[in-house]
Amino acid sequence: MEKNEIFKVTCAALGTQGEGIARRDGVTLFIPNFLPGERASVRVLKVKDSVGYARVEELDTPAEVRVRPKCAVFGKCGGCQLQHLKYHVQLKFKTQLVHDTLKKIAGIDFSVAACERSEKEYGYRNKLQLPVGRQNGQNVVGFYAERSHRIVPTQACPLHPAWAEGLISALLNFMEKCGLDGYDEETGEGQIRHIVVRELKKKFIVTLVTTVPELKGIDYFFFLLDKVFPEYSFWLNVNDKPTNVVFGDAFTLLKGPGFYDCQDGGITYEVGPRTFVQINENVRGRLYDRALSFAEEGDTVIDCYAGGGLLTAKFARKCKKAYGIEIVPEAHDCAQKLREENDLADAMENLCGRVEDLFAGVLEQHPEALVVLDPPRAGVARGVLDLLMEKQVKKIVMISCNPATLARDVGILTGSLVDENGALVKAETPQGDYRLVTVEPFDMFPQTKHVETLVVLQRIE
User: In sequence order, which ranges of 343-444 are alpha helices (DSSP H)?
Assistant: First the structure.
């Protein structure tokens, strides 16, 4: 098998990234936009040993579950992988993905609940983050192509509400009229790097990431944004370093209050430009309610990776006391304000710092606490997992956006993964400290390969 060779294959299954899998001459091919049962002519893009990558040249027999994608750049943009698949089948795929990832990585064969559906299949995202660049002498705004930093220009995104189209148009208009350029990662030239927008109950926080502290014509941009957003705050963020990180350290408020109060289940909370909030509000509510169902009124709860404190506050309302640990100062400040505005001074305590540094002290005071873990994609720090086992925490509620790191962390806690010379390997006879109680996927991200998963673990007495 050689690069650019064309031949016909039949798709056998979907891979973990939502791509089709086919086999030929001992080579496993990964082929985007290819569904099980479909037969197509494909072109080989790359082959190494027994693994190859290809693309569909011509589809001969479309699957019954195939639908027409709503996005004009689907297949080019790296944001979506499943727009061509009927939604009910997407849910089955994600249920199976969580099950198979647990089994493959951790050797755990556990019954996974059916993936909880999203109320909205499109238009559900409350956050838009767009890179801005320059290609062939033109400014471009869009999303990165899969596994690259090449921007795929787009005028709108169906995963976001209608305001996204107006925002993109306004930004390009502003840059053209004011002689501003998108950022070139190779040369470091250009003034505009990213634009990030967060919607909060029809109020918006707009952050423009630039390489310079001042922009000419910024009032013209406000004039254009006034037509897009009914109420908004505007932050200018300066990031002049050669880095893949979106935000720099310096934020300057140029318009509006900067932070907004929101309501969720009777709790008022505040959000700023760097505060983490789940991007699918409807699914977030059901996910949090389910997590709360595993706590008792008399529990003390330690909420690690607590963000702006919303989930911590929900536990504080239900339980005896809840502690929230969060490393981002802005999010911690929002949690502190939430605590005051909701009269939770006696039931909620917020700590700012790394979970690895602060968790042990709180657990020492409350060894019977229910521990909640909602880590970033990298998963739970190994030191935190070791401490959970050492202190014999009785119950753990874990929320994860990455099935792979979830499987790793669950494997360590259940003993199905053990450390041998610094490497994790599957145990022949697992003898862990915890057993799985439930594994429940939630479709926080329809049309994409991503899935949020709630896991509960109980200590084995």
Answer: 355-365, 382-390, 403-414
Does residue 106 contact residue 414 with C-beta atoms inside 8 Å? yes
Residue type, 313: A
Beta bridge pairs of residue 251: 237
Distance of CA 81 to the CA centre of its chain: 14
Name the one residue in this structure whose structure tokens are 């145990």: 427
DSSP label of 385:
H
CA distance 174 to 61: 46
Indicate the pTM of the whole model: 0.93
Mark 382-397 as b/e (b = at least 16 C-beta within 10 Å): eebbebbeeeebbbbb
The DSSP 8-state label assigned to residue 115 in this structure reads P
Rg for the chain, CA atoms, rounded: 24
Q: Catalytic pick from 304, 334, 352, 401?
A: 401
Q: Name every residue whose Cβ is closer than 8 Å to that of residue 230 and which is 6 or more positions away in sequence.
A: 202, 203
Q: Is 178 an annotated catalytic residue?
A: no
Q: Per-residue pLDDT tens, the chain, 461 aa: give them.
A: 889 999 999 999 999 999 999 999 999 999 999 999 999 999 999 999 999 999 999 999 999 999 999 999 999 998 999 999 999 999 999 999 999 999 999 999 999 999 999 999 999 999 999 999 999 999 999 999 988 899 999 999 999 999 999 999 999 999 999 999 999 999 999 999 999 999 998 999 999 999 999 999 999 999 999 999 999 999 999 999 999 899 999 999 999 999 998 888 889 988 899 888 889 999 999 999 999 999 999 999 999 999 999 999 999 999 999 999 999 998 999 999 999 999 999 999 999 999 999 999 999 999 999 999 999 999 999 999 999 999 999 999 999 999 999 999 999 999 999 999 889 999 988 888 999 999 999 999 999 999 999 999 999 98
Residue whose tokens read 């004011």:
178
Query: Which residues are within 8 A (CB) of 9 and not within 5 positions of it... i.e. 6 or more apart?
Result: 22, 23, 24, 29, 31, 39, 40, 42
Q: What angle do CA 213, 215, 218 make, to 5 degrees?
A: 130
Integer Cα distance of 163 and 139 in angstroms? 20
